[in-house]
User: Fold this.
Amino acid sequence: MPPISSRFKLGIVRDVLNAAGEPSFGTRALEVLKDNPELEWEYTPELENEITPELAARYDALYVNSSRVTARTVARDDRRLRIVARHGVGYDSVDVPALTAKGIALTNTPLAIRRPVAVATLTLMFALAGRLFAKDRITRSARWSERNDLMGMGLVGRTLGIVGGGGIGQELLRVSAPFGLRRLVADPYAKDEALRALDARRVPLEQLMREADFIVVACLLNEETHHLIGAAQLALMKPTAYFINVARGPIVDEAALIDALRAGRIAGAGLDVFEQEPADPANPLLRMENVIVTPHALAWTDECFHAIASSGLQGVADFSLGRRPAHLVNPETWRDR
Assistant:
């Protein structure tokens, strides 16, 4: 590896910028970068779907949103990159073993995203339960007489099933507490005592799929959870139940979900994520009236993005000063320093 210059250089990938060229998370979050006067930063010259070896040779740190970081990114001998900071909690777009093998730290922002995603989940649940979009359509087309046929589903006494009992799942348990829902969690790694403290119960995935009126996918995407929800699991759902995914698209076999919705085996779905993103315009999910779709951005608010960027950029600032970042995905890279 070539010698590192005296100044620590951060590249912020351009997909965090809005149409006006300003950071979508606001400018206040950038204040944390002033902790180290030897740290300089800039937005990357181009928007890259995959971080190139050239960028890895240009920067000590990269702050990435949706861009992929691959083994190719860090393969060259002129690599300068020492830390990648993910703008968010998921890191399925990053080749973690490749970074770890090169001693490159990876951070994410697990705390900042929890409340916004939990609130976004409630937004989808309320819209589905109230049949919001169907009622919007009949109102706009002067079909008020059809409102008796669009009865919503009350929440009291219904069952909320959460696939994934980690930070987001537990936050969803907290924010859903006032609505009179029975709450179930499917997660082999969740602690029973933590779930009991939130008035929830851990059950096998099959039981959750059978009993829940609202099923929410809120787990990380990895080899274990890829297509965790497929045709067999969807077939267990009640015909009156709704399916919500706010995690990652490939956790669900999308073709099986489309089949279940087309056949009327489930009542509907709320999807903030897809197997392919951006979603193919020909995707049948985009044309189904019992499906609410958003572009992997329902949780995006000024509050959310400021918290994410403040946390993520603080990790970079800490690293540049020789301090251990708060949220290391691959802590072995720090122990090896």
